[in-house]
From TrEMBL:
Name this protein carries in UniProt: Aromatic ring-hydroxylating dioxygenase subunit alpha
SUPFAM superfamilies listed in its UniProt record: Bet v1-like, ISP domain
Pfam families attached to this UniProt entry: Rieske, Ring_hydroxyl_A
Region (Disordered): 383-405
InterPro entries: Rieske_2Fe-2S (IPR017941), Rieske_2Fe-2S_sf (IPR036922), Ring_hydroxy_dOase_asu_C_dom (IPR015879), Rng_hydr_dOase-A (IPR001663)
Species name: Aestuariivirga litoralis
Cofactor(s) required, per the database record: Fe cation
GO MF entries: 2 iron, 2 sulfur cluster binding; dioxygenase activity; iron ion binding
Keywords from the UniProt entry: 2Fe-2S, Dioxygenase, Iron, Iron-sulfur, Metal-binding, Oxidoreductase
Residue span(s) of domain Rieske: 43-152
UniProt superkingdom: Bacteria
Length: 405
């Protein structure tokens, strides 16, 4: 068995195999609570510094009514701001990514901002009376960079600084050289599903379904696959491949072509590794490249899946071809997971649904649910509370001394 450099949490001998109650997957009131207590207060992945290599390059990120823009300044520094003009609140940039040459110009009335977010000037400034420019720069958003990846959060929250939170991943990310990743052009992807975001994460948080639901992955790494549970909402899933198990065209050719990476530590050679971050992000790394993907909630029953793919610099022809084959395998896997998410979410509204009964191989799903319950103990209730607003019911449970979640 390959030795892994992670302090893992073993599956208990006796644990509660139930999941979240069905009402938590379709309650508008709970969705609003998740917005305020979970998504806006936890680190979200926006992209990689390789996405914005030049001064004026920017990435946009929208989440549940909040809008961010991450931009590289003339001084080379990457900063995050609310994508909101200080005059009337218009978006100062529009789209997913782009470039501002020298300044940011609001398309509504022409207020001009420097690339560091400071206000350069308002259109027709005399019409505003006394306007102190230093008080009207773009509002900053908390942002950190970890091995090239850009994280932000809209409000202060329970997670520590990114470097501390993701410290268990630092050794692997450094070995891969993640800070040197380069974006793969035209391979950003999005997909919208008619499901609650938790149904997507439930599927992705366990490997019990891999053997039957993902024939390509089963051929790729078979019984070598394992899910590892770490602390602070982190998880690692990993599988190793060799030519002996490959039958399908994509997998068979991938394992033949994938170039060796002798500079990597033993546990990362011929490995596909998935690094999870609570509540909704995953970094997926293969010898040929990397991607991150996440669930962006839109409504109680609507979720956007989004991902961005990267390559290593100076890749060879063989590496590029192997990366294409890995993309084909991953594309099939994603489509299979999306269908499973739809089926799982549908069940939550059936009167016949009596809850989950989880395998030891699905302990990662339970740990994710426990993380949600700690923040929102109202999720421990079998039915949606009646008679008082849900946020109030949640606060009452938080204040109970007996609450151990």
């Amino acid at each position: 068995m390959t030795e892994l450099p992670y302090d893992t949490i073993p599956v208990p001998n006796d644990w509660n195999r139930g999941g979240l109650p069905a009402w938590t997957y379709h309650s508008p009131a709970l969705f609003d609570l998740e917005r305020d207590r979970l998504f806006l207060t936890h680190w979200q992945v926006v992209g990689h510094v390789g996405d914005i290599p030049a001064a004026g390059d920017w990435l946009a990120f929208d989440l549940l009514g909040e809008r961010a823009v991450v931009m590289r300044g003339q001084d080379g520094v990457v900063r995050a701001f609310h994508n909101l003009c200080r005059h009337r609140g218009a978006r100062v940039v529009d789209g997913a990514k782009g470039h501002c040459k020298g300044s940011i110009v609001c398309p509504f009335h022409g207020w001009v901002y420097n690339l560091d977010g400071s206000l350069r000037g308002a259109a027709r400034p005399s019409s505003f009376g006394e306007l102190k420019r230093e008080e009207f720069g773009l509002k900053p958003i908390e942002m950190e960079i970890f091995h090239g990846f850009i994280f932000l959060r809209f409000k202060d929250g329970p997670q520590p600084a990114v470097a501390e939170l993701l410290a268990p991943y630092a050794e692997d990310f450094a070995a891969y050289g993640m800070d040197k990743l380069m974006p793969v052009r035209n391979l950003d992807w999005t997909s919208e599903l008619p499901v609650n975001w938790k149904s997507v994460r439930d599927v992705d948080n366990e490997g019990y379904h891999v053997a039957l639901a993902h024939p390509s992955l089963q051929e790729l790494y078979g019984r070598t696959y394992r899910d590892l549970h770490l602390d602070k909402g982190l998880s690692v899933s990993i599988g190793w491949f060799d030519e002996g198990m490959a039958r399908g065209w994509s997998v068979r050719n991938y394992v033949k072509i994938s170039p060796p990476r002798p500079e990597l530590p033993a546990h990362l050679q011929k490995a596909w590794t998935y690094y999870g971050l609570f509540p909704n992000a995953v970094f997926a790394v293969t010898p040929e490249g990397a991607q991150f993907y996440q669930e962006i909630p839109i409504g109680p029953g609507r979720t956007r899946l989004a991902g961005r793919m990267y390559r290593w610099p100076n890749e060879s022809r063989e590496t590029r071809l192997a990366r294409y084959l890995a993309f084909r395998i991953d594309r099939f896997t994603s489509a299979e997971d999306q269908q499973l998410s739809i089926w799982s979410n549908e069940s939550m509204k059936s009167e016949a649904f009596e809850g989950f009964h989880l395998s030891d191989l699905e302990y990662g799903l339970r740990r994710h649910h426990d993380g949600l319950r700690r923040l929102m103990p109202v999720m421990t209730l079998p039915e949606e509370p009646a008679g008082k607003p849900l946020p109030r019911a949640n606060e009452d449970l938080i204040c109970q001394p007996s609450n151990s979640l």
